[in-house]
Amino acid sequence: MSVKILIMGGTRFVGLACVEELAKFGHDVTIFNRGVTEAPVALPRNIRRLYGDRNDHDALRATLKDEKFDAVVDCSAYLMADVELMVEIFKGRIGHYIFMSSPAAFAPSTAFPIPEDHPGTTIETPRNKNYGILKAACEQYLVDQFYENGFPASVGKLPMVFGPRNTGRHREALMMHRLLLGRPALIPGDGSTFSHPNYIPDMAIGVRKMLLNPATFGQKYTWAMEEYYSDDSFADVIGAVVGVTPDKIYMPADVTTEVYQTFPYPIMHRSQVAASPWYKSNVFSTTKFFDHTGFRQEHTFEAACADTYEWFQRAKIHENYNWDFSHEDAIIKRLRG
Q: How far is the CA of 216 from the CAs of 11, 14, 34, 126, 211, in angstroms?
């Protein structure tokens, strides 16, 4: 059955993966965005485009008021006003609204894996400011809208996103570039801190599995892989993929804390729960999502990294990657002399 779907966003990493997956299965996909950032690849045939700025509420109402969709996948909302407007426009008119969120919305936890229904954060952080608070507020509003008014909303948190066309230059692509240059990899502490990856092409399959599934209404999920990785093994897996044995420097705790406080980018690719220190593992339960949708990932972490490296090579990322390593050089000099 073809489903008529609106994707808010749709030309960058997460949204583009959803467009491709849903179109591949014959769904009728429309995307809404400003038209400022074009997709890095040609969009699938028959994708319909609507243009506008979602922050212009009057214009957004006018654009969408007469449109008919079965479902909305929202990849670009993070303010309460964003989701309130979507509920206003589509209440009683759609069969499903899927809101993309983040583990930054989780409150700190003493239990692992962190349950999918773990409370939302109320804590600002130095790096993300109030991003997690805003996402948590949107999540709870949408859950409440289902239980109080029947609005068919679902929430999906996306931990450490990676994969082809990742727009986060400081993530897996930076480790690939670093190792190909023969540079040392700075490892936080003893490298034993765990993070939880989310391969975006598989995530898009999860979105497809959720569509119009009543079991998912009013639910919060965490979309992630079945396996975790440590900082140490992340460098090892990337090294194996690019054909380089990593030259690893294990930073003492005090130096690692300094690095996370002063570097303009995170030294290790991970998803941090709000106010979670660098040495605390972040792993999440995905049991409810798997049970409710029947989703199972199609790639291992190693295979996903290999696919990502193929894109990295095709797109000539390494040749065109300009990165300031001066902060790392200063730490390497201190630790190795």
A: 26, 20, 30, 33, 9
